Structures are given as structure tokens and as C-alpha cells.
Amino acid sequence: MNYNLFEESPLKNVISFDQLIESLEKTAVSDNAYLSVQAKALLQDINKIPELKTGIEDLNLITKNENLLSNLLSNLFPNALSDNEIKAVTIPFHNIIFNFTNRFQRILDDAGGTFDLTIRDFDKDQFFVMSCILVLNAYYKKDFIISKPLFYDIPDKNGITKHYRILYNADFIKISPTEKAIELSPEDIDLLMDNYDDVNVWKEKFPLESWEMKGFGIVTLFDATIESAISELKTNLLRANSEHNEKDRKFESIFRSIFKVPDLRVGLTFYNEEENMFINPPHATTGTNSFILYEKKELPCENAFLDCEINTILKTNKTYAISNVEKFAKTAKNEKFAKHLLKQNIKSCILAPVIKNDKLLGILELVSSNPRSLNSINAINLDLLLPYVVDTLDNYYNDLQNQIEAVIQREYTAIHSSVFWKFKKEAQKFYHTYNPNKDYIFKEIVFKDVYPLYGQIDVKSSSLHRNQTVKDDLKSQLKTLLKIFDKLKENTNLSILEQRKFEMHSYFEDLDLELKTDTEQQIQNYIQNEIHPIIVKSKVDEATEKTIKKYFADIDPKTGSYYKSRKKFDDAMAIINKKMASILDKSQVEAQKIFPHYFERFKSDGVEHNLYIGASISPQEPFDKIYLSNLRLWQLQTLCEMELEHHRCKSILPYELEVTSLILVFSSPISIRFRMDEKRFDVDGTYNARYEVVKKRIDKAHIKGTNERITDQEKITIVYSQRNEEKEYLKYIKFLQFKNILEPTIEQFDVEELQGVSGLKAIRIKVLNTISENPDDQPFQLE
Length: 783
What we know:
By secondary structure, the chain is of the alpha+beta class. The chain is 43% helix and 19% strand. Among the domains are: 11-16 and 55-223, no CATH class; 244-404, Beta-Lactamase (2-Layer Sandwich), CATH 3.30.450.40; 462-562, no CATH class.
């Protein structure tokens, strides 16, 4: 056994039985003849070993005189209680322990010869400070009470860890200063009181071995396995950030201590009330798996127990114990579920519903590979543990719900970080003033005097391309069907086939005309209702059957139609949108460093973006129009990058598509308001609405006096209304021409009058297909 746990101590320990010997000497001269004779006889042996009184330095002396010490301590260790009490002689906080009671010795024997008694969670700093507190209480007559319990964790012969509470009796100990001791003033003691966690302060006031602790103490242990395990369970369940493998082992160790089952394993099955499903919890989140579901991720509740009689667990909400799974399997109704358990080497188990407020949260599973280890009697132990499991699962579900809502907010209804502060402020106001008896009216979120920037990169003629691919797929489908009908005619004399062929030819010719809104749906309904039934019911030869199988294999299962040309178009559109959005999002990170601003983007047949910048967006930072100019240059250069990226990826697109780019310049500050019903920002006020009108109509506008669109492929069109805006953007264009990003030619023209809007002008400039790789050609910011 290791006696010296820690090297540094303020105490020099001297084991002595002088107080006990002095008491024995008084008994020897007492009037009680019987006790006097016993005491005198014992003193004769004790006097032969003066160290027992003056102080023992060699611990071997204790080992050699075990019987003598046992007799000396007999009044403190009654023989009648030796099999019941867990008791021994010790020096507090040390591993110097001897004169064990029978019960204490059996506990140590079961733990194994190599087992070392170590106080749980007790380090060298705690040891030093606690030793100092002994001095303060004994010598300076202070009353510093530390109620933190101390424990020994000792395994039994089955490997189950049991927990014992430590109590010390120091009645036979005297503490006195040595020549190294420092006399403490009231101020010193006050300093120590305020610095429990600073061991260096304590070491300064208590030099090493500056005090002598002479005598002996008595340690008494109480089996506190259940109470300690419950406390550990609470701590373990709250330790969310610990390693899950470690947490899982600790979790099972706690249950094993309480149930005294060495191979006990713990499982959890979650319950999803909305879908009436049992779910296997993610091991990375909980550290446990479900034995009920085993390798399945989820199952409807009615299938989880394989029609076993314990389905009643869902109706009665009562714990169900199977003490012998092999015996349980002999009942026909339970055979499937029993085999399911045996496959996992489960011979006995307890299944306990976890319920809060009459709502099922899941099922706690305790399993063992030994029959009868778990049963309906020891299942009662769960009454102590379930409340903590209930709270933990409830917290888990709440956290999960919060995470789901956060994902929904991030992916679907995100509040941009630049304006989040204002939403947070309003939410805090709601919590501080909330009254359940009064409806709270949320204040509208408005940002005044902000400057808008709008831009888009749009797929040119996307509607025409989309309609054409729909026509191509329908024609291809009708061609295949006409070929199949020619084969059918060879094997049958049905006159209806000719009529159906005539109708399909008519639809085929209609596809050469402009595609109407309902044309695709009409043809699909016709094929589904009139053509497919004939094909399915017809008797055909082997070659035709192969053709028919290939035809149905080529039909998209989701749409029920041919999806080849349209798929190429959709895939090309998705590639363009993804690449464009990626460039914009990446560039936005840098743009936010110019000045915090609100940003949003949308994917449709291309990518649109809105920016709003102004003092009200970030009131803690001084705003200057130089930041607006910086953002305008950033926007123009970013659209150049997007145009160039599209040019680079055109060769890999499954369907060739061109893009056009547009910037709308608006120099007057506007107000934006968060629309609660639409969960998005929109311009506020009648005057500001003019900006939205222009934004929605401008991309379809023509050059004034022509039928030519203002946008063109591989070109960026900048629409503005004021002379100073023109001058500003011509400077940016000149700079980007110098950087070899834009071509030399600049087009300038008037935009046709839009409904309610006139006087718009535009600049159009082509992006170079290759951009200089000069390291100096980096994104520019105005100083």
C-alpha cells in the first residue's frame, strides 16, 4: 500500500498512542480490580516499546505489533462490532491505515491485493489546504467547516465499484508548532479565508512540516453506493461536452454499482410523438444506442416490439422486466422479440418508459447477458434513477428543438447578422415586459436612410429554353410511343390503335407551335389515361416487350414523364446558380469588412442580390458615403468575377446557357421595413416604392426606340438616373479597364419609359473573357 500520497505537507506526522496509554495508566491505579489487572498486564507489554508513546517513525513497528495494538485499541474497536463496522486507525487524508475491522478487511480482500486506497477527486493542492485547515481549527480555534464529502471507490470481487463515504475522528490528535512555524496574525487568517484556491498563499503561511500532528485518527466508512451513484449520474448527465465513449462507460458504471450487475449495459430508445415512431438515438449525441431497434434507425411504434406482449408498455406506461429471455421465447407470441434480444446476447432485461407530464419521451433499456440478473424486484431501483433520466431526456428534446429551429432559421428564414442586434433587442424587450394576461405587440423593425444596391446575373432567355426542353422531351416521348404502337398493330387488329396514333400525331404537330400554359399537362394526362393502359394490357412479342420496358425505364418516377432535355437544362441552371451564389457569398465576407450592411440574395433563373447600407444598420460605427462608393465598386467587380466564372464553366454545362448582368443605381436613401407576414425586408413608404417598381421591371426593358433588350450576354448593364451616378460609374469602369477586367468599348443609351418611371439611362460594358493574373490586380477598396 502506498502510504505517502503527496510529497509536500505542512504537517510532520508522528503516530503516537500517548493519550490512550495515559488513560490506560489511570485505569491501572483505579479501584476496579478487574480492569486494573488487565490494564497493568497490557502496560507491561507497551512499556517495552516506548515509541508507542513518544512517537513512531518506522511503520514496520506497527506491523510487528499488530496484536498488541489491537488490544490497546480494543475499547475503540469492540470485537462484537467488527463484522458490522467499516473502521480502522489512520492519519487523516493519508493512506496510513491499520487495525481494520473484519468487515473493512473483507472489503479490501475482495478488491484485490494490488488495490490502493485513494480518496476520490483529491489532489495535492486540496491535501495541502485541508491539512492547513486542521491547524487553524485545532491550534487557532477557528471553525472552518468543509462539508464536501470524501469517498473511497472500491471494487468488489465481481468488479462492481462501490462507493464509501469517509468520516474522520481526530479526538486523539494533537497539533503543535515546530521551529519552522509562522505565527499567524488575524490579517493572515483573513487572507487565507479569501484565497482557498490559491495554494501558494497557503504554502507561504505554512512552510513544509512546520507543524507537528501527533497521535492517531479513526476512519469510519459508510456504504453510500446508491447515494454516490445518483450524484455521479446527475453530474455525468450534465457533462454535455465530455467524450461520449468516456461518458457512456461512466453511465453504465453507475447503473452497475446500483444494480450490482457487472455486465449491465444501458440503452435508450427515443420516441417521436408527431410520427409515432421509435428512433435510435445518434450515438455521437447521447453515447448510447437502442437495443429495441438494434441496427435500425427508426421504426413505427407498433412494429418495434415485433407483436410481442410487451407492446402493453405503451398503453400502461409501466416498467417491464424479462428475467429470462430464453424462457420468455417459449411463448409463441413473444418468440420474435426474444430472438431479437438473444441475437444481441441479452438474457435478461428491464424496459422502462421515460415519461414527463404524461408524455412519453422514450424507453430506458437495461440489459444483461446473464439470466435473472435483471428482474422485476431490482427494477424497483429505477425509481431512484428515472427522475434524472427524465430531466435529461427532456432537456435533450428541448435542446434538439432549439437546434432544429436554429437550422430552420439559418437555412430558411435567417436574420442577417448585420441587423440581428435589432431583432434581439426587441426580443429581449418582449421577455422583460411579457404579461401572460396581455397581448404583446411587437414593434416593427425599420431601418431609415439606407442606400440600396441591387444586382443580378440572369440566365438569358431562360423561359424560351425551358419551354424548348419541355417540347423536346414530349416529342421524344411521343415518337417512342408511335413506334411502340406500330409494333402493337402487327400483333392485334384493334382499330382504336389507329385513332390513338392519329391523336398522338396531332399532339406532335401542336408542339411545333408556341407552348401554351396547359399543353404539357394535357399531353401527359392523355398519355397516362389513354395510351399507357393500352400498352400495359396488350400482348406483345419479346422484342416489343423489351422496347416497352425501356420506355417505362426512361420515364422519371417523380414527374411521370420523359426528363432528358429538361434535366440537362435544370442541371445547367443548378450549376450556374451554385457557382454564382458561391462567388457572391465568398465575396460578401470581404464586403462586410468595408462597413456592416444588410445583404440578401435569391436564386431563380440566376442570382439576385440586395444590399442596404447606412448609419441605422450599424449605429455603433460612424458612417460615411465613402463606404457606399466602396460597396458599389465591390459590386461591379464581383459581377465581373461571376461573368468570367460563367464563361469558364460554359464548356462543362450539360445545356448551353448564356447569362446577362445588371446593376441598378439608386442614390436617394430609403427606408426598409421587416414584413412580419412575409418574414422579409421590403422598402417602406410610397416614394420608396418607386425603387421596387424599377427593380422588378428593368431587366425586361428595351433600349429606347428599339426592340433590343438593355441586357446582353457577357455584358454588365448599369442603370441609373442622375448625372453624378454616371460620372461615378464611368470612373469605376475606367479603373477596371486599366485592370484588364472590362473591354475598352462602352455603350451608353436611354432606357425606354417604364410604367410610372421615365428618364432612366444605362451604361453597358463587356467583361473580358480572360482576366490578368497580375498579382497587383486585386480587389480594390477606396481609401
